[in-house]
Amino acid sequence: MKTLPAQLTPFVRSDVTGALLAETLGRPEEEFSLAELGRRIGAGGGVVHKEVGRLLESGVLVDRQSGRNRLVRANQGHPLYSLMRELIQATYGPVPVLRDLLGGLDGVERAYIYGSWAARRHGEPGEYPNDVDVLVVGDPPRRELADLAVRAGEQVGLDVNITRVGRDEWDAASPSPFIATVRSRPLVEVLTEASDG
Predict the structure, then answer these.
(1) In sequence order, what are the beta bridge partners of 135?
(2) The organism sits in which domain of life (predicted)?
(3) Strand, coil or helix: 13
(4) E strands, the chain, where?
(5) CB neighbours of 10 closer than 8 A, spacing ≥ 6?
(6) Cα 161 from Cα 148, distance rounded (Å)
(7) With bands split at pLDDT 50, 70 and 90, how would you rate the model's confidence at 7?
(8) Strand 131-138 with 108-114, pairing
(9) Which residues neighbour 67 within 8 Å (Cβ) at sequence distance 6 or greater?
(10) 116-171 pLDDT, tens per residue?
(11) Beta bridge partners of 133
(12) Residue among 190, 4, 195 nearest 97 (CA)
C-alpha cells in the first residue's frame, strides 16, 4: 500500500495510518496482531510496525504482549477517541464496514469501491466524496444488497450505492462501457476471492 499523503483526511499521515485507524477504532474492543492488521489493509510488516509505533507513541492505540505476538487495540480513554472514531469511520471506514457486511452475504464473489472515494484513496486530489460507490461481482439478492447499502451508509455517514454485476460480465474480454470505465479507474478492493475464504 502506498504511503503518500492522505487525500481523505489530510491531517492523517498516510493512507496506511487511515486504514489502520479504521480497523482499530472501528472495533474498539478487538485486539489485532500486527500481521493481521497488515493482511487486512494490504500493507507490509515494516510499514505496519512503523505506523503502529507512531500511533502507540501518541496514545491512540495501546498494546500488550501475548507470547511472541504484540496485540494492539484502540485506546478508548484517549481524549479525542470519539471524535477520531467518527471522522475515521466516515473517511476510511467504508472498507472494513463493507468487508464485514458483504463477507457474510451469500453470492458475493468480489467487491470493490470505485468512483470518487476510490480516487481519493488512490491519492487523486479533489473534493471530499459525497457517497461511496460499490461494485459487487456475483449474484446476491438485490434486495439484500439494498438493505446492506442502507446499513453501511448509516455506519459511515455517507450514502452507499451498490451495483451488482455477474462474474461473466466482470470478466468479459469485451466488457460493457460501464465495466470498462470502472476497470480503467482506481478501485479499492473490499473482498476478493482470495480474501473471502
Answers:
(1) 112, 163
(2) Bacteria
(3) coil
(4) 32-33, 61-66, 69-74, 108-114, 131-138, 159-165, 188-191
(5) none
(6) 10
(7) low
(8) antiparallel
(9) none
(10) 999 998 889 999 899 999 999 999 999 999 999 999 999 998 999 999 999 999 99
(11) 114, 161
(12) 190
| pLDDT at position 163 | 97
Cell numbers at residue 70, please?
504484540
Burial class from Cβ neighbours inside 10 Å (0-12, 13-18, 19+) for residue 196 reads middle
pLDDT, position 6: 55
- What residues does CATH 1.10.10.10 cover in the chain? 15-92
Query: pLDDT at position 194, please?
Result: 52
CATH superfamily of 95-191: Beta Polymerase, domain 2 (3.30.460.10)
User: What pTM value is reported for the model?
Assistant: 0.83
Q: Label residue 196 by pLDDT band (50, 70, 90).
A: very low
153: exposed, middle or buried (Cβ count in 10 Å: 0-12, 13-18, 19+): middle
Give yes or no for a contact between 97 and 156, defined as CB atoms under 8 angstroms apart: yes
- 149 and 162 Cβ atoms separated by less than 8 Å: yes
Q: Which three cell numbers stand for residue 21?
A: 485507524
Q: Cα–Cα distance between 134 and 160 in angstroms, integer?
A: 7
- Relative to beta strand 131-138, strand 159-165 is parallel
**Side chain identity at residue 118, one-letter code:** A
